[in-house]
Design a protein that fits this description.
The protein is mostly helical and 124 residues long. It has 5 helices and no strands.
C-alpha cells in the first residue's frame, strides 16, 4: 500500500512507532491506531490547514487536536524529535528560509528619517 500525501511510509513509521505511548504493555489506555493519529497530525502541520479542516479519515478533529496537545505537554514529540535528530544518517534534517522568518517588525520597511537602520548613515 502506497502512503498518501503527507503520511508516513513503512520505514518512517518503523523508526518512531516504538517511541510513542499507547503500545500494548504501556501503562494506561492502549491506543486504537497511533499511526492514523500521527498521519492526521502530519496532514495538518504539513498542509498548513486548520485543525477543523482535518479529513474525516483521521477521526474527529477535536479529538485529534486534544490528543496532539496532550502529547505536546507530555513531551512525546520532543522525545521523537530528539531520537530522530540523534541519528547521523538522518537525510531530512534541514532548515530553510521557509521555516526561519524575520519578526514582523523587523521585516517592515517603515520608519521615519530619524530612525537609523543597519548600515545606513546617521542622520544629523
Amino acid at each position: 500500500m502506497a502512503a498518501k500525501r503527507y503520511e508516513l511510509n513503512e520505514a518512517q513509521w518503523s523508526r518512531i512507532s516504538s517511541l510513542l505511548p499507547g503500545k500494548t504493555g504501556d501503562a494506561g489506555r492502549t491506543a486504537a491506531d497511533n499511526r492514523l493519529f500521527v498521519n492526521g497530525c502530519l496532514w495538518v502541520l504539513r498542509s498548513g490547514a486548520h485543525w477543523c479542516d482535518l479529513p474525516e479519515r483521521y477521526g474527529q478533529w477535536k479529538t485529534v487536536h486534544r490528543r496532539f496537545s496532550r502529547w505536546c505537554h507530555a513531551g512525546v514529540w520532543e522525545r521523537v524529535f530528539a531520537a530522530l535528530t540523534a541519528d547521523r544518517d538522518n537525510q531530512y534534517l534541514m532548515i530553510g528560509s521557509t521555516i526561519v522568518r524575520v519578526h514582523q517588525q523587523a521585516a517592515s520597511g517603515k520608519g521615519g528619517p530619524g530612525i537609523r537602520r543597519w548600515g545606513a548613515p546617521e542622520v544629523d
